[in-house]
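User: Reviewer 2 asked us to show a designed sequence for the structure in our supplementary figure. I'm pasting the structure tokens here. Could you produce the per-position amino acids so we can include them in the response letter?
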């Protein structure tokens, strides 16, 4: 027999403000990383048979995958010092959630429909 316990957190007003602040920073970072992947996807997708022969091909950039986006986190903490208050594992989890979201977008659901949900 398994026993589980549920606890209700009752943060103070100051703690609730701090939690909301951290969540809004994580939301902004999540949306930024997801937008970076969608921008790459829109700029670099063109099937060979659908692209006219005389067209401008932009300079292709590397795919922003999980590891390249995770490498940007130390620089993020340097350029935006308020992100240093968030633990690195939490920011890494946000990058992982972006990866899962984008992979699900590319794969689609059972009927082949693609959908994405922006947080915010």
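Assistant: Here is a per-position design you can include in the supplement:
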């Amino acid at each position: 027999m398994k026993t589980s316990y549920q606890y209700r957190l009752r943060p103070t007003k100051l703690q609730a403000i701090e939690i909301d602040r951290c969540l809004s920073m994580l939301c902004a970072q999540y949306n930024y990383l997801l937008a970076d992947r969608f921008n790459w996807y829109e700029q670099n997708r063109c099937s060979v048979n659908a692209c006219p022969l005389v067209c401008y091909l932009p300079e292709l950039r590397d795919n922003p995958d999980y590891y390249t986006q995770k490498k940007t986190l130390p620089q993020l903490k340097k350029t935006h010092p308020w992100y240093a208050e968030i633990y690195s594992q939490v920011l890494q989890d946000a990058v992982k959630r972006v990866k899962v979201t984008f992979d699900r977008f590319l794969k689609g659901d059972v009927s082949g429909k693609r959908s994405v949900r922006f947080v915010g």
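For the response letter, you might also mention the following. The chain has four helices and no strands. The first helix runs from residue 13 to 44.
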